[in-house]
Amino acid sequence: MSGTEDTSIAQANAMAALEEKLDRLVAAVEALSSRPRLQPFNPNEAEAFVWEPEKGLLQPVKRVNRVAMPLLKGVDRVRDILIDNTVRFANGNAANNVLLWGARGMGKSSLVKASHAHVSQQLGSADAPLKLIEIHREDIDTLPELLNLLRERSERYILFCDDLSFDHDDSSYKSLKAALDGGVEGRPVNVVFYATSNRRHLLPRDMMENERSTAINPSEAVEEKVSLSDRFGLWLGFHKCSQDEYLEMVEGYVKHYGLEVEPSQLRAEALEWSTTRGARSGRVAWQFIHDLAGRLGVSLDD
């Protein structure tokens, strides 16, 4: 193959790559232009909302799916820290973004929702009520739009993202970094961000290692990824519970719902249930209580 042919092939490949990039740019611009205008909302409609960026609005949640604070067992230390941070924020004082990370089923998201309810009831402030807004993981790139909607409001807002993590080739984490702690405007003083995740650094290890291997300065590439977690001033760790803590959770539910069962029978069945599931956690305890209540003909509607 001649040098002229090699040059032609290289130029054709470069042109194809350029056209592909232009197509992606056009698609991105069209997606931005097609987003609906932000809709005004009435914060008095509900105590909690779900962000729906495709409609440009906050959808009120009439009944929040949550567990009462006294039923959350084995998380006393992180519970107190989170409540303290939430009280500070609700009172208009400085407060941190919070990352709740660790073992599955140990009540991370339940604690966020319970803390919101607990602090709201405790303060009972009509002038600047505390609202909870859930933003789904796949909508993180629209976080700046949501912050603009809330920036001038008098209410205090906890933005909550459950099971936050990022996969390969996912660049939306940069939007989260800028919204939390960077950018020209920064995070509004009336907004704090609470997120749950099964891993502390939010990004998979092999993604960090890939960045290290392909970067000019490997350490800076990894720091770029890890620095996302650094935007959270509080890291609250949740670990697997012991057998005693698991049984305490079960007994707490039994007492709360008034289930009539012999203590020895309850213990044996609860342990057998955890063995068949291969785990002990708050979620496993709650699932056992559902099974037990069903067998006893009791509803758990509250």
What is the CATH top level name of the largest domain? Answer: Alpha Beta
- Describe the sheet with the most strands: 7 strands, mixed
- Strand portion: 5-15%
Q: Which fold does the CATH topology of the largest domain refer to?
A: Rossmann fold
Radius of gyration over C-alpha positions, nearest whole angstrom: 24 Å
What is shown here, in short?
By secondary structure, the protein is an alpha/beta fold. The protein has helices spanning 3-34, 76-90, 108-123, 143-150, 173-181, 205-214, 218-230, 243-257, 263-277, 282-296; strands at 48-52, 57-61, 98-102, 130-134, 156-161, 191-197, 234-238.
List the helices and strands and how they pair.
Blueprint: H1 3-34, E1 48-52, E2 57-61, H2 76-90, E3 98-102, H3 108-123, E4 130-134, H4 143-150, E5 156-161, H5 173-181, E6 191-197, H6 205-214, H7 218-230, E7 234-238, H8 243-257, H9 263-277, H10 282-296
Parallel strand pairs: 1-4, 3-6, 3-7, 4-5, 5-6
Antiparallel strand pairs: 1-2
Written description of the protein model:
The chain has 2 domains: 43-238, 3-Layer(aba) Sandwich (Rossmann fold), CATH 3.40.50; 243-296. The chain is 49% helix and 13% strand. It has 10 helices and 7 strands. Strands 2-1-4-5-6-3-7 form a 7-stranded mixed β-sheet. Helix 5 links the parallel strand 5 and strand 6. It is globular.
